[in-house]
Structures are given as C-alpha cells and as structure tokens.
Design a protein that fits this description.
- The protein is α+β, with helices and mostly antiparallel strands.
- The protein folds into three domains: 112 residues; 153 residues, Alpha-Beta Plaits (2-Layer Sandwich), CATH 3.30.70; 72 residues, Double Stranded RNA Binding Domain (2-Layer Sandwich).
- An eight-stranded mixed β-sheet has the order 2-3-1-5-4-9-10-11.
- A hairpin with a 5-residue loop joins strand 10 and strand 11.
- The longest helix is centred in the first third of the chain and has 40 residues.
Length: 366
C-alpha cells in the first residue's frame, strides 16, 4: 500500500496538485465582490468547491503525514540521538498506517470528484413498450425521482411534459435536477427500466412487462459547448400541442429549435411564456450536444470496454421492478432491493452500492 509520493503514479500526483490549485482559485472567486452579487454563479462555484474540498483536505493531510514520516525515518537513519531514534521507531508505524489509510481515502475521492462538480442534470423520461401501462410506468418513475430529489434537498423542475390523456400516464418528460451530487447518482439511471406488474386495466390479473427509458445529461456550462446560434440553429415560436396534435392555446408560447449540424429538434411548451420555453429549449440543446461529445470522447478512450456504467445507453436494460415479489433487481449489482422503499423515493441504498462499485472500478484503473 503506497504511503509516499514517490510510490504514487506521477499523473495522480499531478491531478491532485491541480485540484488543490483549483480549490484555492474557486475560494478566491467566491470572495470576489463582482461574483458575490450573482447568486447563480455563486451556487455553481460553491458546488464545485464543495466537491473538491474533501479530496483536497485529505490530500493536504496526507502530505503532512508523509512529511512527518520522512523526518522520522531520517532521524532513525542518522543515529545521532539514539533515545529520540527509539521514540521515532515507535511512532513511525502508526504514522505510516494513518498515511496509508488516508491515501486510500484520497484515491477514492479523486475518482469521483469530477462527477460531484456537476451540479445540474437533465433527465429525459419516455414511455417504452407496453402501451398505456408504459405511460403509467413513466409517470411512476417521474414520481420516484421527484420524491428522491425532495429527500436529497435537490431542486426538481419539470421543464416539459407530454401527458397520455387516455390512461393518466405520460408519454415523455424532461426534468432539470440541481444540487450537490446529482450527476454522481442520477448518471446511473440512464437506460431501460422494466416493470412487471398487473396493470389497472387488466381484468384477468395477468402480469405484464412494460418499459420506460431514461437519459441523464449533465447540464453543460456555456464554455463547454460552442454553438453558432446564427448559422447552425433554426428556432421559432409555435403553438403548444396536446395529445393527438390539437392546439391547446391560441398564442404561440411554445418554442422549437433545430440544430442543423446534428439534426436535433427540440420543442418546449410546458412553460406559459415564450421566453421561458426558449431558454429551456436552448439549455436542453446544449446538454444534448455536451453529452454527445462526452460519449464520443468516452468511446475513443474505451473502445474495447462495453460495460461502462453511466454510459447513457438507452438500449440497455439496467433495472427490473417486480411488483408481485416486492423486489427491484439492478442488472449491475448482485443483490435485490425493496420495491416498497424504491417507489417511496428511498434510493439511497441502491445509489450507495452503485457508486461503490463504480469507485472500485475506477480505482482499479489508476
């Protein structure tokens, strides 16, 4: 177990030093009078600083302990003061043990810090196979995430929602979730969620299987995505539409965006004002383009690795919810979880296990 800087990979030490410098820079920015008055910027910088604080604090403490251990070794090796050398021999194992334990903590925090710096995500939910029951399941998933966000103290804003009027479910929804650790946890939700239960409309009591898909997109900052709004984007106001395509109002409050280079089309109509829908559509476009670039870079780095957690692959089934057995089974984990807990928004145990598994995988790659 490495306890000294010389035994750590140079790239790891370099990254830790960069994080410490970034932590100091963020602290200085948060004291800047020009930034203090911008509450949105303060929140953004505070989340990043909070994400860095544990690893930077542990890294500094580890450096202090390793420095103390080096001094003790030099005292022992010099032989100038035999009495002090004996004391140093007694103290050194304890100091090395504390430094080694702290180093493991630093490494674990190192591989998760970048995720914790993302304080805003877009969740996209869509009803999959299963007709009306799939729409009801998509609505239930939305409720689960809403309850979990409330437990975590996260902001939960429904940006767009298309209802399925016949059954009371939803065809799709786009939600912005903000707060500390949102990407670290909600990134695991990307994929296909399968439910096995007896639909309310099933007279014979037969169990049906339905699905809903979830995509999780880290919301990009302006500097992350470059868009030529004048030449690459067509956007215009339009009327909001309900199920079946009928216009639900006579005023053009909805906003549609077409990103010509990628073919992405986004329409926002949940907000009552055209300006709000325009702002939401632009944010979602930036998040989708940011995620596309993240996926491209990820595939380049990990072309041979197909089982990456949090890849955002919508075609992959990640979890099954079995109502008859009161069980939730995640494809990536060996255990099972209480359905009753999950549907009430208690995802803490599931998220903890997923994060522990992913942290171990990343540590193995250091």
């Amino acid at each position: 177990m490495p306890a000294t800087a010389s035994e750590l990979p140079a790239r790891v030490l370099e990254r830790l030093d960069q994080m410490a410098a970034e932590f100091e820079r963020l602290g200085s920015q948060l004291e800047d009078p020009a930034i203090v008055v911008n509450h949105h910027k303060v929140r953004e910088l505070s989340i990043k600083k909070s994400a860095l604080e544990p690893v930077v604090s542990a890294f500094r403490q580890w450096k202090y302990l390793t420095g103390e251990a080096t001094d003790l070794r030099q005292t022992i090796a010099s032989g100038k003061d035999p009495e002090f050398a004996e004391l140093a021999k007694l103290e050194l194992p304890n100091l090395e043990s504390r430094a080694a334990a702290l180093l493991e903590q630093v490494k674990s925090q190192l591989v998760t810090t970048e995720d914790r710096k993302v304080g805003s995500v877009m969740l996209e939910l869509r009803a999959g196979t299963g007709g009306d029951e799939a729409a009801l399941w998509a609505r239930d998933l939305l409720d689960i995430y809403s309850k979990y966000a409330a437990k975590k103290g996260w902001q939960f804003e429904v940006m767009d929602l298309v209802p399925e009027s016949d059954a009371g479910g939803i065809r799709s929804a786009i939600v912005n979730v903000r707060g500390d650790g949102v990407w670290s946890e909600l990134a695991f939700e990307a994929g296909v969620h399968s439910v096995k239960r007896v639909p309310a409309t099933e007279a014979a009591g037969r169990v049906h299987t339905s699905t809903a898909t979830v995509a999780t997109l880290p919301e990009a900052e302006d500097v992350d995505v470059k868009i030529d709004w004048a030449n690459e984007v067509e956007e215009f106001a339009t009327r909001a539409q309900g199920p079946g395509g009928q216009n639900v109002n006579k005023v053009e409050t909805a906003w549609q965006i077409h990103h010509k280079p990628t073919g992405i089309i986004i329409k926002m109509m949940e907000a009552k004002s055209q300006q709000q829908n325009r702002e939401r559509a632009r944010r979602l476009l930036m998040a989708r383009l940011h995620e596309a670039e993240r996926q491209r870079q990820h595939k380049e780095r990990s072309a041979a690795r197909k089982d990456q957690i949090g890849s955002g692959d919508r075609s992959e089934k990640i979890r099954t919810y079995r109502y008859k057995d009161n069980i939730v089974a995640d494809e990536r984990l060996p255990g099972e979880y209480s359905l009753r807990d999950i549907v009430t928004g208690d995802l803490a145990g599931l998220m903890r296990d997923l994060m522990a598994q992913e942290t171990a995988r990343r540590l193995a790659e250091l």
